[in-house]
Amino acid sequence: MFWTIIFLLGGIAFVIIFSSRSRQKNEPPLDKGFIPWLGHALEFGNDVAKFLSRMKQKHGDIFTVRVCGHYITVLLDPNSYDEVLNDTVSLDLNNYTRVLMQRMFSLCLPNHSPDAERAWMKQHFQGPSLAKLSSTMHSHLHTLLRDEERSCSPVEWKEDGLFSFCYSMLFRAGYLTLFGTEKSHSLTDLTAVYREFRRFDGLLTKLAHSTLKNEEKKIASQSQKQLWEMLSPPWLSDRGGSTSNSWQQSYRSRLQNEGVDLEMQKRAMVLQLWVTQGNAGPAAFWLLGFLLTHPEAMRAVKEEIKGLTQLEGGLLQHHLLDTVDQHSTPVFDSVLTETLRLTAAAFITREVVQDKILPLASGQQYRIRKGDRVCLFPFVSPQMDPEIHDEPEQFRYDRFLNADGTEKKSFYKGGVRLKYYNMPWGAGRKACVGRHFAVSGIKQFVFIVLSRLELELCDPTATLPPVNPSRYGFGMLQPSGDLGVRYRLKTVR
Which residues take part in binding substrate (predicted)? Predict the structure, then answer.
């Protein structure tokens, strides 16, 4: 018993001594929290947006916090973000990315090159390939919604949760566009992939934080294995290769050229499934949710649809929907930008690989230590910063419109015009390559829904559910519940 106590006290002393740190000259304000080693881990994990907003009020636009033994310098001055985004010498993205890939997807790609992957992604998500993907996406959306329409009528209403409706439709259409095989065109198989993905997605944030309970670990492991098999096309074992020009086949070939074995190829496909399909559905939910709970915004978007296209019996012409992203839609664009401002909440994280002097736009300079991490959280600033956006917690569909109906791009903080006033896709050279494909899919989906269906709230007084705070830092936020809606076919007059 005596030696047990001695060892416990020694362990506690070890943690206190080696987790101690004091602020040095020219370093950002240091807030270690009261719990040795853990620091602010609990607050950080429970609601990081609320926590960082509180730290910002306490310390200003830059500060260092301790979280599970790591020291994270958080920068919340958009005018200084380029000093982090453009530094590839003192700051590194790759190491932390590898850590998350292993935690979340049990994936190890030792020869992984983010720059090479971005170049490959640009070949598929930009230029002529983007137009082809968008057209294919629209075709699948059209087919899936046509199947949905068969269960509807102009007389009887059908009820559903808006989040479930949006996520299911966009996930399945996106899956068929990028991962589809002849087998996956079965509606039953497609639904099975979607349900398994949602089960896995529900545990991803805990996987990233290493906070899964034992039972959850079993569920996550089972779900991963199911998805690995579901995303393995028949030609995967064909070492001779396939003549297919599909995105999926191209990605498999790229992994093979990097020396990735078949097992890791399966796991990499689950990563790509989450990256490509995990955000569009939630974004469409929030957008339609804001429109349904803000009638003025809904009227403005519907007026734009009418003015944009010719209507035949109240239905948007098919060939115009196929090219809708090529037309000017300033009202819809403002609604989407405002939606993303309120609900896109990804971290931008770098590891400090050598001591760095970080100059701010204010003229101040701060020393950042090797071994620490630097984090930008655009959701807090610029997106929810009251110095930049008036009443930032409120949805205003015309926030990004000038009085003459053109796109508003001039926003200021401290009298200085901002380069970054909204950052749902990241910024700089690391901005999301697939953003144009995502926007095109969301736009097509919303236009099809609003042109073909009468959509309304089950309860006219209902409000949007609150966000699930565990999703902060992982792309698009998700709701903690759903929003009941009902819909029916529009009557053709």
Answer: 103, 109, 279, 373
Q: Does 342 count as an annotated binding residue? A: no
Q: Report the pLDDT averaged over residues 364-388.
A: 98
Q: What's the confidence (pLDDT) of residue 147?
A: 83
Supply the CATH classification number for the domain 114-344+391-489.
Answer: 1.10.630.10
* Domain layout of the chain by residue ranges: 2-105+345-378, 114-344+391-489
The average pLDDT across 159-183 equals: 89
The reply, when asked if residue 279 is annotated as ligand binding, is: yes
- Say if residue 373 carries a ligand binding annotation: yes
Of the listed ranges 53-57, 182-186, 374-378, the least confidently predicted one is 182-186
Q: What is the mean pLDDT of the chain?
A: 89
pLDDT at 324: 67
pLDDT digits (tens, 9 = 90+) for 149-168: 777 777 789 999 999 999 99
375 has binding-site annotation: no
CATH number, span 2-105+345-378: 3.30.43.20
